[in-house]
């Protein structure tokens, strides 16, 4: 889908002096707006919009609009929007993501080049992650899959299909201890959803104030203690240099043998080979994964052969009817329009880039200011 429109002219027929080379170009490399309404909004504001599925072919992406001032899209499936890609667009001033995740963008390179990266932390996204996390936890603990297969194969009640009682009870049963790694939006929603169950909640997050832990009724602790004491560990951290490979062989060895590990954050946070070793060796009861270090897992991957020890999901925990990226579309569009007006958009993920961005683009608005 391509929108090509004439240069923006004033009432006297003169082209916009702020855009001497014509209308600023917006390259939407992975569109999500099936209606095209946001594309028309950009065009009406004075942009040339190129909207095509380009995120699986770097060469086509680089050739599509080399003079683009903005890149927009959902998760980049062609790997990383790295320095090579960013430098191939000399006029680029913003990468606006429809998603909450930005680990497909080289944030350090963007910051060094004075390019802003924005995201859309919509509730439909992180709320969907939280709900999916609870679903995965209950499906594993209540043996939903094995029970289903057992009955369909002609079986009936079997002690081996007993589930795990989750919440605290009045008869003295203490309930499970559930550890949350990352108490941001998704992790906080998980804590709120679990609150009425009466479980013991632990969390670790060095970037969250103590007030949030108190508000959520969560005990703050360090990672090692959380892993050692939790019956269920659920990951909701961003993928950074600090968290990449954080759940390695040593971390897994500190968990209880009957524990469940859930990862609905980013695959590279967990060392998948170490996880398979722990599951195969009986040092961990199970894992529920919506994300993988390589997506999709290649045929013959060890994780695919672990049967009922794992529940696997195709990176769709946030893909829900009534919970799509639709709510993010106006946010990303607003971010692009602000940046093209040389105004700082909302939801900037690399504020360290602002000084250089202002030096590069602050005096060069490509669109008139909003009225």
Describe this structure in words.
The chain has 13 helices and 13 strands. With 371 residues, the protein is α/β, with parallel strands linked by helices. It folds into two domains: 2-119 and 323-361, Rossmann fold (3-Layer(aba) Sandwich), CATH 3.40.50; 124-312, 3-Layer(aba) Sandwich (Rossmann fold). The strands form two sheets. Strands 9-8-7-10-11-12-13 form a seven-stranded parallel sheet, with helices on both faces. Strand 10 (232-235), helix 10 and strand 11 form a beta-alpha-beta unit. Helix 5 crosses helix 7. 41% of the residues are buried. Residues 1-20 have low confidence and may be disordered.
Helices and strands in order:
Blueprint: E1 2-3, E2 25-30, H1 37-44, E3 48-51, H2 58-64, E4 70-73, H3 83-87, E5 94-97, H4 107-113, E6 116-118, H5 123-141, H6 144-152, E7 177-181, H7 185-194, E8 200-204, H8 210-216, E9 219-220, H9 223-229, E10 232-235, H10 249-253, E11 260-263, H11 272-280, E12 286-289, E13 310-312, H12 329-340, H13 354-361
Parallel strand pairs: 2-3, 2-4, 4-5, 5-6, 7-8, 7-10, 8-9, 10-11, 11-12, 12-13
Antiparallel strand pairs: 1-3
Helix pairs in contact: 1-12, 5-7
């Amino acid at each position: 889908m391509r929108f090509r429109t004439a240069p923006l002219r004033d009432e006297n027929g003169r082209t916009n002096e702020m855009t001497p080379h014509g209308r600023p170009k917006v390259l939407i490399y992975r569109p999500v707006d099936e209606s095209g309404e946001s594309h028309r909004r950009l065009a009406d504001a004075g942009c040339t919009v190129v909207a095509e599925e380009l995120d699986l072919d770097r060469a086509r992406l680089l050739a599509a609009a080399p003079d683009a001032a903005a890149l927009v899209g959902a998760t980049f499936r062609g790997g990383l929007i790295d320095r090579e890609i960013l430098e191939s667009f000399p006029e680029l001033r913003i990468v606006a993501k429809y998603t909450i995740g930005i680990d497909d963008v080289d944030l350090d390179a963007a910051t060094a080049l004075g390019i802003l990266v924005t995201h859309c932390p919509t509730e439909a996204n992180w709320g969907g992650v939280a709900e999916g996390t609870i679903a995965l936890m209950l499906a594993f603990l209540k043996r939903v899959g094995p029970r289903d297969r057992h009955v369909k194969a002609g079986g009936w009640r079997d002690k081996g299909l007993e589930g795990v009682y989750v919440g605290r009870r009045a008869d003295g049963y203490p309930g499970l201890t559930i550890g949350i790694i990352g108490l941001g939006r998704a992790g906080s929603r998980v804590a709120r959803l679990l609150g009425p169950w009466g479980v013991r909640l632990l969390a670790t997050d060095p970037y969250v104030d103590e007030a949030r832990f108190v508000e959520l009724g969560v005990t703050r602790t360090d990672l090692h203690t959380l892993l050692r004491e939790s019956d269920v560990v659920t990951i909701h951290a961003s993928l950074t240099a600090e968290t990449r490979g954080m759940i390695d062989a040593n971390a897994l060895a500190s968990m209880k043998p009957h524990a469940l590990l859930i990862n609905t954050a980013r695959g590279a946070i967990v060392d998948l080979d170490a996880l398979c070793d722990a599951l195969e060796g009986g040092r961990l009861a199970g894992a529920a994964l919506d994300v993988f270090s390589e997506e999709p897992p290649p045929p013959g991957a060890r994780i695919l052969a672990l049967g009922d020890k794992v529940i696997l999901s195709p990176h769709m925990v946030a893909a829900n009817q009534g919970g799509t990226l639709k709510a993010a579309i106006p946010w990303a569009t607003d971010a692009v329009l602000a940046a093209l007006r040389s105004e700082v958009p909302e939801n900037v993920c690399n504020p360290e880039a602002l000084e250089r961005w202002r030096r590069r683009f602050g005096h060069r608005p490509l669109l008139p200011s909003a009225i």
